Amino acid sequence: MHLSGRGVAMSVFASLIFAVIPGYALYLGPLDGVQVFAQRILWSLPAVFVLLIVAGRISMLKEALLRLVREPILILALLLTAALLGVQWLIFVWAPINEQMLDLTMGYFLMPLSLVLVGRVFYSEYLRRLQRIAVCFAAVGIIHELWVVGGLSWVTFLCAVGYPPYFMLRRWMGFDSFSGLFLEMLLLAPVAIYLIVNYAPADAFSIAPQLWYLLPGLGLISAMAFAAMLGASHLLPLGLLGILSYIEPVLLFFVSVFWVGEIIESGEWLTYIPIWIAVVLVVFDSARVLLKQSRRLN
């Protein structure tokens, strides 16, 4: 498969899995959002290591460690990416538990536009005609939401602006997606241990024994989804990655309404319909490009 085809497939896979995680977090009581975040970090760490082995990337992990020794500036960059990642992972499981799912969804609607802007300003990336039209439709929906609500919540803001600098740093660092994620998990692990030791309910696993298999499952799907998203970020232009990222908030919207049970006011449909049109245009455009690529290969 062509590199951009692989990138599109990985991005869609990541969006599908990420959309499941907020609903999944609702079944992890009596843990609150912070404890789910801490447990997610600890259970994701072995899952990412197993994926490293299965994918044959151990040599790349060794190379990344050697680069950290040779280039100390990368250690500072890794600390920053770990912090940015930690904030996003915390919000992602805290929001549904605290009835902030729609704010989270709006943040992920805004985040792709942030990626498109970063790709255009910092990497001189250009969008095809249908992609530009899709961005315009998405912008109409978002502007309507801003007009109706009158501003952005802190959850929405952090989701919208957190990932672009993360992806830029990861691209500059040049680490393999699995290796970089594993190193970030290692840096976040002490924070997770501290939160669990000092603040976790002592009888959580006796009250809810299903946590023994639900938490490892959360770690596994988190690792797979994030590794796929990072792989897509290395294979695709940031502009295209940003457009494809609209698939995730559309799915999160359905999770918010039909799984979490949040209510959409009648006026808010004018926010979501233009964005859904944008997604349809993106899917059509991507499918057309991939079809042309396959014809050239054949």
Automatic annotation (TrEMBL):
Tell me where the signal peptide lies. none
Recite the UniProt keywords alphabetically: Cell membrane, Membrane, Transmembrane, Transmembrane helix, Transport
TM spans (from-to)? 7-29, 41-61, 73-94, 106-123, 130-147, 181-200, 212-231, 238-260, 272-291
Q: Does the keyword Transmembrane helix apply?
A: yes
Q: How does it sit in the membrane?
A: Multi-pass membrane protein
An annotated GO cellular component of this protein is: plasma membrane
Keyword hit for Transmembrane helix: yes
Q: Organism's domain of life? A: Bacteria
Places the protein is found: Cell membrane
Q: Which family does it belong to?
A: Belongs to the EamA transporter family.
Q: What is this protein called?
A: EamA family transporter RarD
Species of origin: Denitrificimonas caeni
